[in-house]
C-alpha cells in the first residue's frame, strides 16, 4: 500500500508541475473538464460518451509524455541540437495525431447524434 501511495503522490506532483509550467496542459485539462458534460449531450449512448471523454483524456496523456520529453531534452542541453529538435518534433507530431483522433471521434459522434449515421 505504501508503494501505491507514493506513486499516487508522484503522479499528483507531476501533474501539478505540468499544469503550472505548460499552457497546453492547462488547455487540455480545461477541454477534459468541459468534455465531461458536453459528451453526455453529444453522444447517442452512454458508451459513446465515455469514448468521447477518453479521447480527450488520451490527448492529455500524449501531451504529458511530450512535455516530459521536452523537459528532459532541455535539461540535457539548451544549445540548438538537430537530433533533439527532431525528437521534440516527433513528440509534437504525436500530440497532433492524438488531437486528430479525438477530433474524428467527436465529429463522428456529432454526425451520429444528428442522425446522419
Automatic annotation (TrEMBL):
Residue intervals passing through the bilayer: 25-43, 49-69, 90-111
CDD domains: DAGK_IM (cd14264)
Membrane in keyword set: yes
Enzyme nomenclature, EC number: 2.7.1.107
Topology term for the membrane: Multi-pass membrane protein
InterPro entries referenced in this protein's UniProt entry, alphabetically: DAGK, DAGK_prok, DAGK_sf
Cofactor: Mg(2+)
Domain of life the protein comes from: Bacteria
Residues annotated as signal peptide: none
PANTHER family: DIACYLGLYCEROL KINASE (PTHR34299)
GO molecular function: kinase activity
Assigned keywords, A-Z: ATP-binding, Cell inner membrane, Cell membrane, Kinase, Lipid biosynthesis, Lipid metabolism, Magnesium, Membrane, Metal-binding, Nucleotide-binding, Phospholipid biosynthesis, Phospholipid metabolism, Transferase, Transmembrane, Transmembrane helix
Catalytic reaction equation(s): a 1,2-diacyl-sn-glycerol + ATP = a 1,2-diacyl-sn-glycero-3-phosphate + ADP + H(+)
Protein name (database record): Diacylglycerol kinase
Major subcellular location class: membrane
Family: Belongs to the bacterial diacylglycerol kinase family.
Organism placement in taxonomy: Bacteria, Pseudomonadati, Pseudomonadota, Alphaproteobacteria, Hyphomicrobiales
Function comment: Catalyzes the ATP-dependent phosphorylation of sn-l,2-diacylglycerol (DAG) to phosphatidic acid. Involved in the recycling of diacylglycerol produced as a by-product during membrane-derived oligosaccharide (MDO) biosynthesis.
Keyword Membrane on entry: yes
Subcellular locations according to the entry: Cell inner membrane
